Amino acid sequence: MRVLGRDFSLATLRIEVTDTRGDRLPVNRQPGDDESGRGLILVDALADRWGVSPGPAPRKTVWAEIDLLP
Asked: Residue 27: which of 19, 37, 15 has the closest Cα?
């Protein structure tokens, strides 16, 4: 049911992945490089911005944001 005046919009979608390899930071590779790290080629192509946030040792969080509104 839709209630008048209670609409919302989503401006940015944020995706986060946390792992326990805080010592290994992601590297954006080029197509044809090693078999590891190729997922960031897709992230870099599709996301408006991405980065890495350190967490409590030994964790890190890789995040990507996609702007949804023009």
From this structure: 37
Q: Can you say whether the dihedral through the CA atoms of 29, 19, 55, 15 is positive or negative?
A: positive
- Provide the residue ranges of all domains of the chain, joining segments of one domain with +: 12-62
Strands (E), the chain: 12-19, 49-54, 60-67
Q: Are the C-beta atoms of 12 and 70 separated by less than 8 Å?
A: no
Q: What residue has token string 């940015």?
A: 12
| pTM of the complete model | 0.72
pLDDT in tens, 36-45: 667 888 888 9
